[in-house]
Input
Amino acid sequence: MASIPDARPESGAAREDQVRTIFSEIAPKYDLLNHVLSLNIDRRWRRRAVNELQVPADDPDIRVLDACAGTYDLSLELTGRPGFRGRVVASDFARPMLVTGKDKLEGAQVSPVCGDSLKLPFPDGSFHRVMVAFGVRNLSDTRAGFAEFARVLRPGGRLVVLEFTTPPNRLMRGAYLFYFHRVLPLVGRVVSGHPWAYTYLPESVREFPGPEELADQMRDAGFQRTEWSWLTAGIAAIHVADVSKDASSPSSG
Ligand SMILES: C[S@@+](CC[C@H](N)C(=O)[O-])C[C@H]1O[C@@H](n2cnc3c(N)ncnc32)[C@H](O)[C@@H]1O
Output
C-alpha cells in the first residue's frame, strides 16, 4: 500500500489541528466504523471502564466528566446504568462528533461541551470522576492531559482511561498488526470515504507509550494510586488512577 504522508501523527499544535480535522471529517461514519472495525468488542471495553469508575448509586450530586467524549458512547454506558442519578458532562473539541451523536442523548443526563481536554473549561475540583475512552492517545501532550484531569477532579476522585495498545504476545501481535495496518485502513477508507483517517489510527497506536509508561505519567501528574490491566489479549488496556483524599498530600506512587 502506498504510504500517505498526512496520516503520520503530528506533534504540538499541528497535532491538535490534525486530530480535530480527522474526527470532524469522519464524524458521520464514526459509530458504524467503531463497532464494525472492533467487531463490537469496544462495547464490552466501555462496560468495563464504567464498572471501574465505581460511581455510587442513587447520588444525584455525582458529577462525571467524559473527556474526548466523541459521540457519547461512554457517557451513555454510564447514564444507562440502573441507579445512576448523577450528571455527565461530555466534552470534545471536534464539534461535529458532538453534533452527530446528539440524537442518542434523548432523555439522558448528559451535557455536551465543546472544549479542549488540555484546557478544560471547568474550575478545579469540579468532578468526582473523569473517564476517557480512546482519547488520550490523540492528545498532543498526554502528560498535560493527565495534569488537567487531576486538576478538575475532587480530592478522592478517580480517573479511568481506556486506550489501544500493542499486544505483548508475539503471535497475537503479528495477527493484530496485520489487521491494524492492512485490513483496518482499507475498510476504514472505503466506508468513511476519508483517504487517510484510518491510517492515522494504527500509526497513532504504534507511537503511543505502553501501559507502564502511561501509569508513570499518571503518577507524575499527581495521581496517588494507579493500576492498569490488559483487555482482550492486550489489544487495549484500562487504567484506574485515584486522586488523594487529602488534596494537599503529595502523591505516593
Ligand atoms: C477515538 S475518539 C473516541 C470518542 C469516544 N470517547 C469513544 O469512546 O468512542 C477520540 C475523540 O477525542 C477527541 N479529542 C482528541 N483530542 C482532543 C482534545 N485535545 N480535546 C478534546 N477532544 C479531543 C476527538 O475529537 C475524538 O472525538
Confidence is low (pLDDT under 50) at residues 1-5, 249-253. The chain has one domain: 5-242.
